[in-house]
UniProtKB/TrEMBL annotation:
This is Peptidase A1 domain-containing protein. The active site is at residues 95, 282. PANTHER family: BETA-SITE APP-CLEAVING ENZYME, ISOFORM A-RELATED (PTHR47966:SF51). It comes from Romanomermis culicivorax (Nematode worm). Disulfide bonds join 108-113.
Amino acid sequence: MSKCPTCQFTVGNFATLLFLTLPAFLNASLDTQSYKNHLRRFKRSPKSSTLRCVASTESPEPGTARVELCNINNYYYLGHMTIGLPPQTVWMEFDTGSSTSWVMTSACRSPPCTIAHRFEPGRSATFDVVAETFNFTYGAGDTVSGVHAKDFVCLSRRMCLQNQSFGAALTVQQDNMIADGLIGLAYPTLSSLGQPLISNLGSKLKQPLFAVNLRRDAKGISTGGEYTFGYINQSLQAEDFHYVRVANQSYWSVEMDAVMALNNTQAPVRVGCPNGCHAIIDTATSFILGANGETARLLAQWSRLGLVQLDSSRPGSGGGGFGDYYVTDCERMKLLPVLAFLLGGKSFELTPDDYTFPDDPSRPCDKRQVALEGGPSDLDFWVLGGSFLGAYYTVFDFGNNRVGLAKIRKTGI
């Protein structure tokens, strides 16, 4: 068991710039850039004071690994792994929305590095520099730079990779970072630093897949689910998996038929994806983001009905759609509709309790954050983040290029 070292510090109340975005130099569309810029701007630091969590890793059988997660206020899900020989523990955020991995190093003197559990290359007998520099410039001007390196990387004691590529960060210009770095789990076409971890793991895994359980919790800081590599934890699924083909082998993108609002007193109303669309399944995004301004219009409608309230105190919120940030309370939340996402002919439903969570875990009903975000009007796909994945156990099957979804079994923990 390991205690999260990066989780033990006082966190401010202002916005955390999300570092889990694609570098601006990647061959991504303008729409993709806008989506990532927006998510970075609105992924926020938790408001708790001292954050503490305990998590573990293991390999239940050969060809498998299990990484337990720490849930930090339903915004961040961190798991630990080791880099180097002898192994050094780092706490990482696992991201199906990117393929590139990097970690802060002991040579980094940037403010975010002073609170991180930094990797020390000089202590590793297997550390090797592949290229002298890398420089990621993110859309809002944030940067990560350092050297392209390789080393021994382990998800558990029995699931290790030799010569795994990653970025060894020397400077990190991003605010209020929680994790020590990033592990990209999307397809290799998005990687800018050699073969990503998931590609190199493929031949070692019992099954060419990984499964994700992001457990949401009103308590603020808690054990937050798990990633399993090479197997599916069947105890977590409450039903059979429904599989949807990957539409584009870059992001984990699937075809979505519609988004509906369900209310007991009236017929279902289509609120998004009117002619079919794509949805990206993104584990490192907290909220759900709609295409073509659809979530912005939905939130504005709910606001006019008095069901939610614009929180203009949040940095960047109140601009009239893109980036607006909404809250509700327990009484008004009961009047919000169930949202249904139609994927591969099956309806995946979220209750208001699924897509809202407490702003302050000690006062869960006073102010609840609505985990939907209004996107730019020219964004042509949806992003299904943690508020969706918290309700569904999800399999990323890269051997068969498909995503499986099953309702999560309630454990009572």
